[in-house]
Structure formats: C-alpha cells, structure tokens
Amino acid sequence: MEAHLGFRGRRALVTGAGKGIGRAVAVALSRAGARVTALSRTTADLESLTRECPGIETLCLDLADWEAVEAAVGAAGPFELLVNNAAVAELQSFLEVTRSAMQRSLDVNFGAVLHVSQIVARQMIAQGVPGAIVNVSSQASKRALRDHAVYCSTKSALDMLSKVMAMELGPHKIRVNTVNPTVVMTDMGRINWSDPQKSAAMIDRIPLGKFAEVDDVVNSILFLLSDKSAMTTGSSLMIDGGFLVS
C-alpha cells in the first residue's frame, strides 16, 4: 500500500493518533512501510491501535505537559516525518468563552504543535536529513463559524505558524504544510453532525454536497509527507468540497 510514496523505513510521529484522522494516518503510514510512533493521551486507544497494527510504537502523553513531552518525544526520536493532528474543540459562543477553554485550546491546538515541531525539527537538523511536517488545521481557520471563536482563532494561528515554520525550516530541507478539512466523518463527526437540520445547513454551502471521509484527509496528508510534493511548502491544502468558494 502506498509503496510509491517512499515511506519504507522512514520514522514518523503522529500526534492525536488514538482516534479518527490521526489513527488512520498512523495505520496508513505503518502499512506503507514507515516506522510509526503514535502519540495519544488515552491508554486504551493506544492499546487497541497496537492490536490493530502491531508494528506501531506508542507514547501516552498529555501534550499540554511540556516537560513530559520534551523528555518522551526527544527520547523516542529522531523522526523524519511528523503529523501534528491532536486538537481540542471547545465550542462556546463568544460571550461565553471561558479562560479554561481558551487556555486548553491554545495549549493543544497551537502550543503543542509549536513544541513538538521544535523537538522533531531539531532532531532532523542534527541528523542532517530532510523532513516533512503536516499540521492538521481546518476550514475553520479561513471562515468564521458560530460558537467556534476559540477554535477558529487557534486554527488560524496554526496556519500562520506553519508558514513561518516553512520559511525558517526550508533551508534545512524540512517542508511544512497544513491540511484544512471541512467536517470529517470520523466516529465523532458522525455523532456531532447526525442532526439533519444541522448538517444540511453546512452541506448546502459545500458545492460537492457532502462532508469529507477520513480517507480524503489521510490521502492528502500522505501526499504532503511524500516526495511527490517535494516543491510544496508553506501551503494550506483545502479538503472542503469547495466550501470556501461559496
């Protein structure tokens, strides 16, 4: 599977790998021959992942704990590929945003990406190897959504962080891009968007008339990690069915 993308033997770290997109990316990379380390804060999810794909190594960490992340990720590397997928969605109206929701979102959606990427990029530079980083952003970074004040803002910050990373890491042959999906039909996505009235309002704004499937996002991430996208860095790949054109 995906042997033509050149992942065999390459070391990859995937955060938020216990469920959904992150889990699917970890499995796809492993099956394509990469040596994958999956990071999640939920032990049960990592245990079920290793049962599904025994070759995957795991790290159980809360990404908000900088000291623990520094030690564990540093010891687990070096890596050549990184997918920053972990995120939280604290949905509150603007007038009801709490300090705790804001801080947790900043810690995971922005701070953890910066920190993990620093650790991994320093390893790449020390090893003198080229690398690729994909940050999982959202269409919410480009368009305001009701009750998503903190989520939209942290994803917008992530997009700009990725551009600065691409600029500064490019001379070290490290590429950095984002994928920006619409609603994705993970298990949680199906639950959260099962109300026909709620989903219809969003789908009506998507020219292709549907939400994204997990494989739509996984395939885009694999492309951006691979040498098939060797001249692509600092870009945001929209996986939104045309949501932003309407």
UniProtKB/TrEMBL annotation:
InterPro entries: L-xylulose/Carbonyl_redctase, NAD(P)-bd_dom_sf, Sc_DH/Rdtase_CS, SDR_fam. The keyword Isomerase does not apply. GO terms for molecular function: carbonyl reductase (NADPH) activity; L-xylulose reductase (NADPH) activity. The keyword Oxidoreductase applies. Pfam families: adh_short_C2 (PF13561). One of its GO terms (biological process) is xylulose metabolic process. It comes from the Eukaryota. Keywords: NADP, Oxidoreductase. Belongs to the short-chain dehydrogenases/reductases (SDR) family. Homotetramer. This is DER reductase. It comes from Horornis vulcanius.
